[in-house]
Amino acid sequence: MASHxxxxxxxxxxxxxEVESRLLLVHLLRxxxxxTGTHIGCDTTHCGACTVLLDGxxxxxxxxxxxxxxxxxxxxxxxxxxxxxxHPIQExxxxxxxxxxxxCTPGMMLTGAALLARNPDPSEAEIRQAISGNLCRCxxxxxxxxxxxxxxxxxxxxx
Amino acid sequence: xxPAPFDYHAPQTLEEALALLQTxxxxxxxxxxxxxxxPLLKLRLSAAGHLVDIGxxxxxxxxEEQDGSLRIGGRTRESALENSQLIRTRYPLLADTADVIADxxxxxxxxxxxxxxxxxxxxxxxxxxxxxxxxxxxxxxNGSRTIPIDDFFLxxxxxxxxxxxxxxxxxxxxxxxxxGGAYVKLERKVGDFATAAxxxxxxxxxxGEVEKVGIGLTxxxxxxxxxxxxxxxxxxxxxxxxxxxxxxxxxxxxxLPNADRRGAVEYKREMARVLTGRAxxxxxxxxxxx
Lengths: 159, 290
Fold this sequence. Notes:
The complex is a heterodimer. By secondary structure, chain A is α+β, with helices and mostly antiparallel strands. Chain A has helices at about 25-30, 90-95, 105-120, 125-130, 140-155, and strands at about 5-10, 15-20, 50-55, 55-60, 75. In chain A, strands 2-1-5-3-4 form a five-stranded mixed β-sheet, with helices on both faces. Chain B is α+β, with helices and mostly antiparallel strands. Chains A and B meet through strand 4 of A and helix 2 and helix 6 of B.
């Protein structure tokens, strides 16, 4: 079967790889590049545990071929922290107890960060709508919403 | 889960893509957003030796009014519909639909053309497109042809597209004055297919009678259904609560849903009735305001 040379910018760094057609993006990240922050949950496009940003937009990496990402930019949870400083969304999940088991957390944080990039001051309804494709089974949505609100306040320039 | 092996192709032009479809005719699938196709391949419910990704072909993503119709490029993402000011102001039926397809992350990749070409009666756009009497443009090796939406859905996962054709555009007639539409879906949770859903598009006359009406039902049989009897009944009448209730009853009478974990046949048919009534009521309200 055909293999394809691909070049994907992940968290700002260029990564070259040789991939089989059927390799999924989530497997490229976890198995070929050892970036295990992206979780595999349902594996059927429901749960959002595998969420990454593709050109800044949240998508489910279990439902994208690695070769489709050729020439594109991917952000994973490993890319949120910069120079030892947590991203405000990470700080928000910490401060507001936005996680219990942590399985959904990387996906939740990336979806939250993408929301705040296009809407710096979302309402609670807008936050809940944005994360409606990310499932938390510890029933932690109340604190997850608070975590995103914390990050929103932190990211907004002081008035 | 990992799909069975296939060869991936990324043509840069439509011509190249069509040539690949001809070469691998019986063993090829078009990859658009991939949000239905990739899960099917992973679950091994479908198989293909070759995937032709149309994602790198320029010029297939657009939403514009031109020459008497709204034109939507076949590869236009659902999220683009959702965020389009034109769609939100002029085509509330489409905006309603885009808001409830799968979930926001899936809509960032899923495409309008894929939603139709997949031929799944549980998808949401088929009923919408029936209600607004859309046409589908299919491009093949000998050029393009338009297919009225009523002739497009042939059976479960089967459409009028030939194996060497690509769905390149959807055309929707420009809404005349006093037109409104609505899509109402009952789902167990975000991301699920509809337990039942109804699409309605209504144009009122100056006197307030129903001049034109389109009604489509989602997940109510092996193909998306047009409720023709209900449309005929309502045409020419004042859209009173009684008339809408009777149209909804007629629409539900053609529903042939399957019993599954979303509900029994009787329940789903009853929901088709309730939702058709709500979609018509909302469409009429919006028509009065447009």
